[in-house]
Design a protein that fits this description.
about 15% strand; 4 helices; alpha+beta; single chain; globular; about 110 residues; Sufe protein. Chain: A; 3 strands
């Protein structure tokens, strides 16, 4: 996960706000979602190497996907990939917070609210 963080991008300061802040993450992180023709476009930034890596992983999995496909994604697949077992309980909570933000954006995208 740390290696994934090396591909991490940053957000402009104007996009780091309460609406994009990921509540429950062990270190400050932000996720921005945009919807174009039912496709969710995600961008994010994390302040720690672990947050950067987890964001990069989620952007790889969920970025530029149809909102309906994201909402149908079974988070159990992350367990099957062995990702969750690599994380401490605190980082597992952070991952859950990231996923909740992704699903929020996907839900809003699917309803035409994003």
């Amino acid at each position: 996960i740390f290696d994934l963080g090396k591909r991490h991008t940053t957000l402009p300061e104007s996009e780091k706000n309460d609406a994009t802040f990921i509540v429950g993450c062990a270190s400050p992180a932000w996720l921005v979602g945009e919807c174009k023709d039912g496709v969710l476009i995600l961008r994010g930034e994390g302040s720690s190497e672990m947050a950067k890596g987890m964001l990069t992983l989620l952007l790889d999995i969920f970025g530029n996907k149809k909102a309906s496909d994201i909402l149908n994604f079974d988070p159990e697949k992350l367990n099957e990939l062995g990702i969750v077992e690599l994380l401490s309980p605190v980082r597992q909570k952070s991952l859950q917070s990231f996923l909740e933000k992704v699903y929020l954006y996907a839900t809003r995208c699917s309803k035409g609210e994003l």
